[in-house]
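ARCHIVE CARD
Drawer: 12
Card no.: 0347
Subject: one protein chain, sequence and derived structure
Cross-reference: see card 0346
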Amino acid sequence: MDPSQVIIRPVVSEKSYVLASADKYTFRVHEDAHKTQIKQAIEQLFEVKVVSVHTMSVKSKPKRRGISRGRTRSWKKAVVQVRPGDSIPIFQGLQGLEG
């Protein structure tokens, strides 16, 4: 699988900003990707050294709009810790917004 297919997009939330200050970055990843593929994709795309990868499946939630009911999609999330001193530039511009 191509690295650009493994990493879908960064997760933008308050919790991901707090983790980014501790060199941990959160990404939405392909459902079939495993930890080794995620580690290789991050290292190739952002040229950083990955220390650890934690993955989790985010379950779907029931949603309702008026009378119609449905569910959100389930997806896979990965929290990637990089070597101290390394950083991923996507999150650099966003960290200035929290202060």
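Annotation on reverse: The chain has four helices and six strands. The beta strands are 7-10, 24-29, 50-58, 62-65, 68-71, 75-82.
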